[in-house]
Amino acid sequence: MKRHSKSPAPRMLPSASILIPASILCFAVACSKEPRESVLENLDAAEAARKAGDYSEATEHYEDVLEVASQNPEALIGLGKEAMRGNRSGEARDYFAQAAAADPEDAEAHLGLGQALEELGESAEAIEHYRRSFELEPDLGMAHLGFARLIRREDRELSIRHYRTGLELEDDGSGGGRDAEDFYDFGGVLSELGMSGEAVEAYENAARLEPEDPKILYRFGSLLRELDRGAEAVDPLRRAAELEPGNVKFVYKYASVLKDIEQWDDAIAGFRRVLKMDPADEKSLYKLASCLEKSGDLSAARAAYADAASKIVDDKKLKSRAAAKARDLAGS
Question: At what angle do helices 180-192 and 214-226 cross, to 10 degrees?
Fold first, then answer.
């Protein structure tokens, strides 16, 4: 009977002769990590990158997380924030929506979705997500502020309550951590309800946070003037007019407050600036003549009143007053 011969024993190669490329070793080590460990490491790395201002690296780490855990809310929210930072609101909406679907109890996902929807002009949906956000996490100031912004036309009183809550929550103790636009909008709602004292404070805070914003300075100064606080109104209105020297409305309001506090020469210069930009501005035509009269320059005042009477078309009462003043000064 033919016998089968035994297969020779495998020969063992010396360990020194086994050369494994470093890239393969690195891949093996990476693959050996537990998925949960990989997710946590990437999330930590993404947060560190964001704090360091390296947003592209943060994005890479968030994307690495999704390769392992495609519905991880933290990574989806992180990518949503990066999309918002890059003004990609539609993309951000999709990321935040996925995060909210993955974890309906995540307040930050609803906040981000509300912000993205607000940017896209989808206010009704945004309101609901802002509301859901602060219902889940009452201390989330940005959710209160977003909600307040979007309901301020429909329910001013409710809006004011949420503005107050949001601004208080966003205060970091030094007066920072808050946004000038929120104070500006808050001031507008307060003004509409006749709450002028608190509105002044809101505009003042807005101006402190954005001292070079002419829109904020103009509204702040205008409200002070409406409250007969002309001396205080001069500085913000002057700065607004300096920041936008070609804005007729800003220059006119600045000249008007100078007239209020009887700084005649500066007011005259201001109204002349307005008329250089808009020669047909009827109120400036009359106020220039009035300032000249108050300053004691009666000859120039008479000529200015006559000029106003000839150029004013729409305001019949003002035209009549200018003509009467010109006649009176001519006979004096």
Answer: 30
